[in-house]
Structure formats: C-alpha cells, structure tokens
C-alpha cells in the first residue's frame, strides 16, 4: 500500500509540474478589454503613444484596448492608479521620462518608480535639441560657450517650469560647460517661445517636434542636438557631446508599464504584441513625424533603462540643486 501511495504521489506531482507551464502561459489572456492609463492630459507625447498602440494592439489581441487619461499632480495620480491596479494584464500604462525624474524632486510618492512596476517595453526616444534666439551672437555650442564666458550671468535659458526636464538639461549644460546662466521658468514650452524668439531669453532645450517649425522658419537657431546621436532631420548639426560636453544626453522617452507582480507570461505576451505594433511601417512613420525613433526593447532592457534614468536624474538633481515649486 505504501508503494502504491508513493507511486500515486509521484504521478500527482508529475501532473502538477506538467500543468504549471500551461498555467504560466496564460492561454486565456486576454479574455476581456484592456485599459491603458495615461497619467497626462490628452495631446501630449504619452497620450499620442498610447492611442497609437491601442489602435493597432486591439486587432492583434482580439480584444478592445481603450485609453484612459488620468492627469494631475505631474502624473502622480495616474501613475499611482497603474501601480494599484490588479497585476493581471488588463490595466497597463504609458509613462514618459518625467516618471524617472519625479522621485528626485518630490519628497514622497505613493509608489516606487521602479519596484512598483513591471516594464513591458520602451516605446520610443524623442530628441531634445538646444535652440537659441535668432538674435544670439552664436551659431554653435562652442560659440555659445565662448560668448557666455565673455558675458557671465547675462545669458538666460528657458524651461517649461521648475523641475521640468528642460530645467534639468539647461542646468546640466551650464554646469558641464562651466558657464554662469540665469534660469527663467515658464508654465510650458509654448509659453516660452515668444521670449526665446525675441531674445528675452537666449537658449533652451526642447523636443524637436515642438520647435522644428520655428527652426525651419528661421525664428530659432538650432545650436545642437541633445541626444547621443545626430538627428536624421539635421544630419550636419553636431550633438552637445560632440561639441565637447562629454556624457551629455538630453532625450525624452516613452515606456509601457504594468503593475508589479504581473505574471511574466502576460508581460511577455504584451511585449511581443506591442513591439509588433511599434515596428509596423505606419506606426514607425508616425513616430518619425513626431521626431521620435522607435525602440521596442525587451522587458529586461526596459527595466534596466528605467533604473538607469532614475539614477541619472537623481544624481543630477542632487548635484545641481534642482528644485520645484510643485
């Protein structure tokens, strides 16, 4: 009897072990609609990204994919909603680079920007560019630095507000270049444009899509590309790093996140299908028109990138004493 019981136990264990991979594959996922939370207002980078993904993801998964905007508190409200959602793959979210910057600027967050989430994929990188007023007596980074050193404390850089990524990049550039500049914050990128064009402020960092029309019309000077690579739109324009500011990299990015604890099988299935969407010709072309290049990396690569960005921004905010009024 003992030998029979032992055999039955072995058989039962074998059946369980065989069943586990099947369960882990989550064969019934998805069986209902998926919601993508966007923690920002409609019309921005994160919102556009989520809606492009939702449009093409639904046919691939055979279920509706809807986008829900939950803006407020610099994205904290919506991001917290993502973190608190059930880890079952039916609620995911799209965040942008400010997600990695917030913990360095806010004393407390209701979530951890890294451990509260299961990254699915980085969607795209958007070039930040260094632009100057057309009245500026400099056309390159080298000329700008030389002019700033001849006029210490007289030049100003604009930002989209205290603690914004454009504030961080401007302060980082001034520090790395060894120049003294005044920070002039605005309520947003659009609000700063009249003063930048007229020369009230002399320089700023912004996303390429936000300023490309002004560059092409001659209303702004393109001094350099902020990211590690030159822009396909302006291949003859050097990067800030190429101009001698080693290690400088000003990019914006998007990332799809699930709540922490979401099964790997579901994360992998979402990754496979979202990366398929990102690599569709129409989607890649849409991102290109926004000045962005598709990434579509693995969950592990996205997680490593997120941690790296949190570390970078945290170190910069502390070293440069960046503060926010929010």
UniProtKB/TrEMBL annotation:
<dbReference type="InterPro" id="IPR005064">
    <property type="entry name" value="BUG"/>
</dbReference>
<protein>
    <submittedName>
        <fullName>Tripartite tricarboxylate transporter substrate binding protein</fullName>
    </submittedName>
</protein>
<keyword id="KW-0732">Signal</keyword>
<feature type="signal peptide">
    <location>
        <begin position="1"/>
        <end position="24"/>
    </location>
</feature>
<keyword id="KW-0614">Plasmid</keyword>
<dbReference type="Pfam" id="PF03401">
    <property type="entry name" value="TctC"/>
</dbReference>
<dbReference type="InterPro" id="IPR042100">
    <property type="entry name" value="Bug_dom1"/>
</dbReference>
<comment type="similarity">
    <text>Belongs to the UPF0065 (bug) family.</text>
</comment>
